[in-house]
Design a protein that fits this description.
eight-stranded mixed sheet; FAD/NAD(P)-binding domain; Glutaredoxin; alpha+beta; globular; binds flavin-adenine dinucleotide
Length: 563
Amino acid sequence: MHGLDRETEVLVVGFGPVGATIANLLGRYGVRTLAIDTATEIFPQPRAIALDNEALRILQAAGLPEGAFETIAIPEVRYRSPYVGELARLQTGGCLDGHPKLVTFYQPELESELRSRAVEYPSVTVALGVELVDFVEEADGVRARLRHRDGAEHIVHARYLIGADGSKSRVRKALDVGFDGRTYAEDWLIVDAKLGSSSLDHIEFRCDPRRPAPHMPAPGGRQRWEFMLLTGESAEQMERPEKVRELLLPWGSPDDMEVERTAVYRFHARTVARFQKGRVFLAGDAAHITPPFAGQGLVAGLRDALNLCWKLAWVLGGLAAPGILETYDQERRPHAKAMIDLARLAGRVIMPTSRAQALATGVLLRALRLIPAARSYLEDLKMKPQNQFDHGLFVERRRRLARGRLARPKTGLIRGGMFPQAWIQRGNDGCWSDDALGDGLTLVGFGVDPQEHLGQAAAEWRAAGGTCIQLCHRGQRLHRGEGDHVWEDISGAFVPGIAPVGWAVVVRPDRTILHDGPVAEAARLVGETLALLGAEDAYSGRSDETGPGATAASASAATEAHR
Ligand SMILES: Cc1cc2nc3c(=O)[nH]c(=O)nc-3n(C[C@H](O)[C@H](O)[C@H](O)COP(=O)(O)OP(=O)(O)OC[C@H]3O[C@@H](n4cnc5c(N)ncnc54)[C@H](O)[C@@H]3O)c2cc1C
């Protein structure tokens, strides 16, 4: 393992889709990163097939432009029962925060894209065919023993270690943080096949106790079927070509289908007791695994990646106190668990164990559809747990406003919730708002320039990797020569969509709302933000050379200063 440094800031164990996303994000933030994987090649068989708008937004944050990998937007997810007909029709068409609500994709293509981009970052090193053997935590970092497939060993010292090493995670076992939950009794046969032509555009769940079977289209003329194995059926039996042909018959002639792969899986619903122990973090399947019925396994891992990476970058850059890292577990674990619970609930509908249970579930769901509010809760995806934290790294709202302070107007801003994304424009230039927010902390002013209200706090904000932007309502008359931080909100999603003119919000690099208030109090919002990050000590002696829009650069420059 010649050429590998003995020191790094973050060691990422596992270069699957979650590890590769982490490497890209850390690369963007300028963090010195070593990513390793036992395997030398991408796992060729796709497991994940569906991603939601949040996942696509995270991949956008990780630097993947639209179209970087092929997707198919799915307008509906239908649940059908052989006894009572259609049970539910989830409305997944259209966009949310700039991305389709649900797409299917081809996992190896996404992974290949993530890998090739990660190695482009000067601060990222990737070593394949290298496994983590063991590690010990020390006062200032983690000392890890790595072994190349040729037997050569290498010791690396990292300030932090992330275990993104999948469901059998060695990192998790070493941390001894449990992996509680359940393993399903049933096995499932996954069949991916290419079809000459097909009009299938939606996902369909056949909720039949005799053989539950989800079925969906995927890019490249592919389709996926998942067939539950029945009592007495073995994996070997089910994977036989003649059996696969028999299973596929209801969907057309198997002669017109090219079966690409078959594999039998057993699903689990498990989470660790803690996502962090000392300087070691778990992300992706290493921390949580879910049955795929809600299509949220990888999505949850991507949420982990975005939540954790900027915090590590800020701490390593001396821009925040190490204590903020504890909010990773606080914020991510409850949400990952809620998604698993949703998948388990969906599993009960999809795989009824008997005709009687299928009938009872069917009748109940049909009845619920007659009640408009219940139907909307079910079919307009309101059941899906919001990515919104009860506790964590945001300024929790006081119950009563201080005397004399402006009464809080009604806004759509929830601290600890996600800041939306919409299309914005400046002159003839348009972009998605996340791209204008950039990689750092952003103070957003609605209809008013927040910079003008920062006063002396402006320098401190810049030093903290903070930038400012102003979102104007469509057609707002702007001063001539306004800065390049002023953008017009084309769709009205922001002003007055979620906040009135004169309001301001602090948005974290992972697009979580950290603070909000009147723009006239921008200096206070910034002060409270920096205090929350534990920044008082972190900024002493720093220069304010970092300019607006250069947050990633500022983070890496600060990293340099910190070394
Ligand atoms: C049938 C099925 C369907 C699914 N459908 C969906 C879906 O539609 N949507 C969705 O979001 N999710 C879905 N999932 C879940 C999704 O596939 C996983 O959550 C995701 O692939 C996990 O990615 P990961 O990077 O955490 O782990 P992995 O992909 O398992 O990657 C872990 C990596 O770590 C490496 N590694 C392990 N140990 C070591 C070590 N000691 N040293 C170095 N490297 C190591 C491995 O070689 C591997 O490359 C599905 C899963 C299955 C099984």
